[in-house]
Each structure stands twice: as structure tokens, then as C-alpha cells.
Amino acid sequence: MTQVASKQATAPFPLALEDVRIGVVGLGYVGLPVAVAFGRQFPTVGIDIKPARIANLKAGHDETKEATPAELAEATQLTFTGEWDEVAQCNVFIVTVPTPLDGHNHPDLKPLESATRAIGKVLKRGDIVIYESTVYPGCTDEFCVPILEELSGLVYNADFFCGYSPERINPGDKLRKLPDILKITSGSTTEAADFVDALYRRVVTAGTHRTSSIRVAEAAKVMENTQRDLNIALANELAMICNSLGIDTLEVLEAAGTKWNFMAVRPGLVGGHCIGVDPYYLTHKAEAIGHHPEVILAGRRINDRVGKYVVNQFVRLMGRKGLLKGDLRVLVLGFAFKENCPDHRNTKVASIVEHLHEFDIAVDVYDQWVDADECALEYGIRPVSVLETGKYDGIILAVAHDDIVAMGADGIRALGKPGAALYDVKSVLPVDAVDQRL
User: Fold this and answer.
1) 3-state DSSP call for residue 211?
2) Can you tell me the distance from the alpha carbon of 331 to that of 423, in angstroms, rounded to the nearest whole number?
3) What is the dihedral of CA 95, 101, 106, 109, to 10 degrees?
4) In whole angstroms, what separates CA 331 from the centre of its chain?
């Protein structure tokens, strides 16, 4: 498919790497690593709408734990601000704001629109805007560019340019950080694409993969996470079948994994800002052009109901153990969307808590990684800070944080009453040490 941009008049791309001044818009799990990487080599300004976030970063503290104080200090050309007049002198704008879903699982582009409008007001002739936020194919040209043109009074690909280089940050992963993950790049003209690719090659040691168009890069991003979503959905459905047959799912997967081309994947909760979100961006665009995606939405339906499935299995387990009597209290270990990470965006552990409440079961959540105040504000769930022994009728290990796994099966069981039920969602404890696992 031909890009909209290719139909417009183009002008020579004016920027050289030695003249780059970078503005990173959004300093969350994606934006901060980007700002730190570029801030080692180029004058870079990071801007965020949260004053507390800016104050913490200026003090050398990153509450997301994606950048250490030493890494922040090494980015000697990086400054932080909440004021757009301090970003106006930049000529490269990199947008890393979140692109979540609304209550109907439709793309919520309000953060993207807000960032684009702010850039449009300071955009100058010769500037380039590079989007890293996950979007549907065509979003940059069809949604963002008209805003930039309207507010700047400039003409796309004649006065300013765009690029798209989708983020591949893996929150909590200390082995594969931004420089270690191959980066997709693209640009709105051939010369702009050359520039974007060269720019990222300065900070990504793993290299880059340049695509022929922005739309291809946009589609590649949602595709890679849609594939992961479907693979996990298959594993989750296999777990549901194996549980009904009385077969251990993990043992089945380990046996199947001995075949050379078997794709290793485990069942589990699918939350966070990527895998559980990106397929809906793809299906949104597909339906807009008249195609109803069947396989993708089937995978989403399976993964979205895993929390309810876990609770139904857990309550049946408690029934078999004769525990469904009196006032019940259950402990859920872990609340972040993944292990060893404070990110609780779109965590599906919240659905476990919700469905336990439907059975009139009182629930305590324990997670030392997440911010309790933020969880209370967003979900109405405040994790406890202290664990008490002998208190719970049942325990669900939902997130395999290192500190939780380090308790061991005996340490975790000690938190429950004698005979309490122990359900291991993550299959990290020995199979003979738990009552059931997904």
C-alpha cells in the first residue's frame, strides 16, 4: 500500500547528525531509556506532564527502575523539564507516550494527540517527529500528520518530516536493554528514513532494520505482539484442556518442547501495555477497512478470561479441601503485570481480585514492587506491606517476583492456615509442593 506521504511533494532532508537536538516526549518505561541513550551522545531534553516524575529524575531517581542513578549520571547531555519552551529549540522530537485502550477495547489516542498537538505548536521548518508509541498501521500519516500541519502551518515532507521506530523496551529486563534489541526504523521520505536509521544506529548496538515505509513499521510492531498474544492464548487453552484431563500442563509443554521447531511458551495472565493491548490496535484498523479478524480476537477472548478461569479453579480447589465455610480470606502474591517490575498497567491480577470478591472472599494483595498509593487510586486495591503467618484460607501465587519465589513453597504455605489451598499461576514452585497450578 502506498503511503499518503509519497503522494505529496518532498524536499531534501536538511538535518545532519552533528546538528541534532533531541526532545523526548514522555518519560515512562519507554521514554526514559530512550532519553538516557541519546543523552549520552546528543543534547537531549526529556519532557513529562508529571511534575513529581521530573523532580525525581532531576534528583537522579527513577521509580520505574529502568535507569540506575549511575546511568542517569552518564547521560551528561540530558536534561529534564515539564515546560515546552525548553523543548522548542529541539529539531528531533521522539514521542514515547502511552497508547492504551478505552473501556470498549478501542484505541485511546488522547495521550498521542496531546503530545502531537504540543509538538505542532513548536514545530519548525526542517524538524522531524519520530513516533515510538504503538499505533495501528496508518496512524502516523492519517492521525498525527494532519495535527502537526494544522498547528504548525507547515507542509509535511516539504517543511517537516516524520519517522516511526516502534519501541521494544522490555520492562524489568536487565539483560536486554535498549542498545541490545534490534530496532525497526522508517521515515516519511527516503532521506528521512536514512536519517532515522543512522540516528538509532548511534545508540542501538544490536543494529537496525529499516523498512520501506512508516506503515510497514507500524504494522510490524502490532504484529510481533499479536503473535505473542496468540501463542500464549494457545498455551492457556491447552492448560484449560489439560486441567480437565488431569494432566500437568507444564509437563506437556516440556515434552512437546523437545521437538526442534516447537515454540516455547507458557500459559499465564496477559497484561501490561503491549501484548494485551496491541492486538486491539490491529483489529481496530482491520475492522475500519472492512475485515473482521477472527483468530486475533479469539486469542484475545481466551487471554482476557484467564483471571476468571484461575479463580473458578481455585474456588473448586478450596471446595475439594473443605475450605468453603465461614469468612474466607485469600492472599494474592504479586500485583505487577510481570515479574521483577513495578509496572502495574493493565495488570490482570486485578481480575483475579475482582472475581474472588464475586465469591464474597476477602482478599489481601502483597507486592513490594508496586506503588501502593497508585494501585489504590487506579484499581481500588491497596497491597499490604507486611505478611502475617497462619492468616489465610488460600494463597494464589500470581506474579513470580524473585522475592516471592525466594520464600519457597514452605515459606508461602506458612502464611496460610493449616490445610490452606495453594495455587501457582506461574508454575514456579515444585509441582508436588502446590495443590494446583495453571
Assistant:
1) coil
2) 11
3) -30
4) 26
C-alpha cell at 292: 473482521
Q: Are 195 and 187 in contact (CB under 8 A)?
A: yes
> Which amino acid, 270?
V
Give the residue numbers marked as catalytic. 274
Question: Quick check: helix, strand or coil at residue 28?
Answer: coil
- Hey, is 187 helix, strand or coil? strand
Q: Are 332 and 396 in contact (CB under 8 A)?
A: yes
- 0.90 exceeded by the pTM? yes
On average, the pLDDT of the chain sits at 95
C-alpha cell at 354: 475482582
CA distance 156 to 14: 14
132: Cβ contacts below 8 Å, ≥ 6 apart: 30, 31, 34, 94, 95, 96, 164, 165, 166, 167
* Contact by Cβ (8 Å): 187, 196: yes
> Considering Cα of 30, then 274, then 349, then 241, what sign does the dihedral take?
negative
Instruction: From 360, 386, 3, select the one nearest 192 (Cα to Cα).
Output: 3
DSSP code of residue 160: B
Q: What stretch of H or E contains 25? A: strand 22-25
Running DSSP on this structure, what letter comes out for residue 179? G
pLDDT tens-place string over residues 331-388: 999 999 999 999 999 999 999 999 999 999 999 999 999 999 999 999 999 999 999 9
Strand spans (E) along 50-170 = 78-81, 92-95, 128-131, 161-164
The pLDDT confidence band at residue 173, using thresholds 50, 70 and 90, is: confident
Whole-number pLDDT of residue 6? 41
Find cell 481500588 and name the residue.
380
Mean pLDDT, residues 160-172:
93
Residue pLDDT, tens place only, 309-319: 999 999 999 99
Contacts of 148 (CB under 8 A, 6+ apart): 116, 119, 120, 123, 129, 154, 156, 160, 162
237 exposure class (CB count in 10 Å sphere: 0-12, 13-18, 19+): middle
The mean pLDDT of 200-206, rounded to a whole number, is: 97
Res 274: pLDDT? 87
